[in-house]
Amino acid sequence: MAYENVIYEKEPPIATITLNRPQKLNAINDLMLGEIEEALGEAEADGEIRYVVIKGAGRCFSVGQDLSGEGTSAIMPPDPRLRSPLASIFRADVRLMERWRRIFNYPKHTVAQVHGYCLAMGCDLMMMCRTAIAAEDAIFGDPSLRMGYATINPLWTWRVGPKRAKELLLTTRYIDGKEAERIGLVNRAVPPDRLEEEVELAIEAIDLSAGGIAGADGEAPHVTFGRAAFDISGLSAAWAFAAGLHSISSVQRRGFQPDEFNFWETRDSLGLKGAIRERDAPFDGLFPTPAHPEGGST
Question: Which domains does the chain have, with CATH numbers?
């Protein structure tokens, strides 16, 4: 199948999905997210494939949602000036949550290969994968929080624990690959020039361990018990709660009071890059912030 926004390749037992909007630093729009799902479906239907690697073309994994609106509607944060009814925003958030859950529950082993920026929706996509291996200088975080949104991803708590999740989400601090490994956000952080090799070695080790008494069928009980453990710990309820919280935050975000920063008004007057600079400027003296992207993205 031909794709416009991703590249699908296979070398059994591995399929690779490459996010392919390098000129936009792989900013995710509806078209790309739909093609990611289609490519995952193609790999799932292929009996030769047991592992799927997701990575980004060019300078980074992904900077998150495409805030320019190019090819984007349902996943783009709504403009508060449109006064969209909360119900329609909530329905859009629920649809997005359902897409994330399908990727999280994907029946084959997914591996995120992360370099450069891994922000906002890009970071969400990485967390949906079962294994994540990152370059030591990769940068993780969610800049949408700086616009007043609540996170739409409940997995922060499961990946790094409630104390770390609260710190990162309330301060909106970015972290590098080394810290991401230390707190458990990724499985391993490696030198950038060894990233691809380490991903291959990780898959080889998993594949060898799957050759025991259960063979490849050992994946079935692993997935079943893993899902049950997450559900018992409350993840099923958290998906719905996060969608509701995010939709409420979308109509109560910063920018309604005269002295508050309004991302949308600033984007209209200064352009997207200018709005991103204004958004991040108050945080630059508190935390190291990555260079601002050259494209229409977070």
Answer: 6-284 (3.90.226.10)
